[in-house]
Amino acid sequence: MRLPLKGDDEFVSNINKEVDKIYYEFITFLKPKLIMQKVNVMLGDGTITCSETFDPREIRNLYQNFLKVLDGWIISDISESKTDDLHRLFFQISTTIDKFYIYGYFGIQFHALSFYNVDKRVIEIQKELIKLNQYKFESFYLLK
């Protein structure tokens, strides 16, 4: 069954309260690592712009530390998936209690745009190319 449950009886209400607690704890656990920071990035044409991001490696490290302390649970590796600009970083845990199989999926999903690290050599090469084009343009008109 998927949680939270639909319904309004006491059992469903109690289960959903526990799910809300897990959700709150997970968000509280992740939030300090999801602080956005401004970074300079280079676009494909070499221009530099400012963007906001967080470091997914911090989330992976946080997950690893959390999984180390789980006792009695079957844990998956930390996985990631990437489709175009949509990325996911997640893990799964499970255990059996009496006749019940409990399974949890915890993860984050975020959009990531492709940028490049600012590289001064790329900028220098682009300036050189501009100068060469200007030289070709000037030489073309001198030959006429």
Q: Can you put this structure into words, describing what you see?
A:
The chain is an alpha+beta fold and 144 residues long. The protein is built from three helices and six strands. The protein has helices at 10-30, 56-68, 120-143, and strands at residues 37-42, 48-53, 74-75, 79-83, 86-97, 100-111. The strands form two sheets. Strands 3, 4, 5 and 6 form a four-stranded antiparallel beta sheet that branches. The protein has a two-stranded antiparallel ribbon with strand order 1-2. A hairpin with a 5-residue loop joins strand 1 (37-42) and strand 2 (48-53). The longest helix is centred in the C-terminal third of the chain and has 24 residues, at 120-143. The mean pLDDT is 84.
Q: Label the overall shape.
A: elongated
The run of helices and strands is: HEEHEEEEH
Range of strand content: 25-35%
Percent of residues in helices comes to: 40-55%
Report the strand count.
6
Kindly report the average pLDDT value.
Answer: 84
| Poorly predicted runs of 5 or more residues | none
Secondary-structure class = alpha+beta
Total number of helices? 3
Distance N to C terminus = 80 Å
Query: How would a textbook summarize the main sheet?
Result: 4 strands, antiparallel
- Radius of gyration, whole Å: 25 Å
